[in-house]
Amino acid sequence: MNDIERFCRDNIHKYFETGDLSMFGEYLSDNSSVIGTGKNEYFTDRAELLSRLKRRENPNESVCFTISAEEYHSIELCGGIWLVTAAITISQKGTQATLDVPSRLTVVLKKTGGEYSVIHMHHSVPDENQAAGDFFRDGVTARINHMLEEKIAEKTRELREANDRLRIMAEHDHLSGVFNRAYFEKIAEKLMSDALHKGDLFMIIDIDKFKQCNDMYGHQAGDGVISDVGGWLIKEFPDGICARLGGDEFAMFINCSEDDDNFILRVNEAVKRLYERPSIKKYNITVSLGASHRQQSDSFPKLYSRADKALYKAKETRDCFVLE
Q1: pTM for the structure as a whole
Q2: pLDDT of residue 315
């Protein structure tokens, strides 16, 4: 190690290990430039650099820095102007952990006799994420591409979620939460021929005297009733495919595995729980229900017609369930 390299080494140790600023105060000229590792550490004026260094917060006494590894190279550029490059590892030791930071140092200085004057100093920390063999532009390009990929993935996810919301809005009745008539009719034939027999039975549910409720208590009251009936169908018949056909009428395809008596009992018990729902109870609402089993030769209109006839019978007395 020559005296030029030794000068740099000694002052670097002083700065990091003791906080001694003499390298900047004594050896920098007014026109010297210093570039540090931070985005704001760019100085072309010694006074500004010294002011910034002196204003910094006092370092935590429980943490100290040491130079754990170092390597220096120097070359005389011309007439006493030297270039010194160094690879140094700065270790920060505290009470909780030890952190080793590899860094690079470039110093341009002038030696006149035994006097030193620093012209330029540049301290940097390498990008550890940069792949071996890559240069700066390769790493930046890779990071930009990664950011773009993440942005595209985020936008794709947002678009998918928006499409899902639009699909749900297109398929569902917003008041009741069950399917709307258009979507229900679209899938009706498929449900009837489903290999899992989800269309074994078709049922129509009609809210008794719903128009009177609307006329007497207003449309907000009616909306509450519709919402309660929809929520009731979803909760009581999770194995069913439910829809609001319009107005006060709902429908459901369901796989009826039990015999008729047990299914009727199941429905009647569920209706009792419907009558305990807030809007239903408040406005003394009842429902009538008509249902029919799917026959092998049935089309949906044919099945619908039989269930509608059963509903008509139930409406003769109201608050009744008829299964044919």
Answers
A1: 0.55
A2: 93
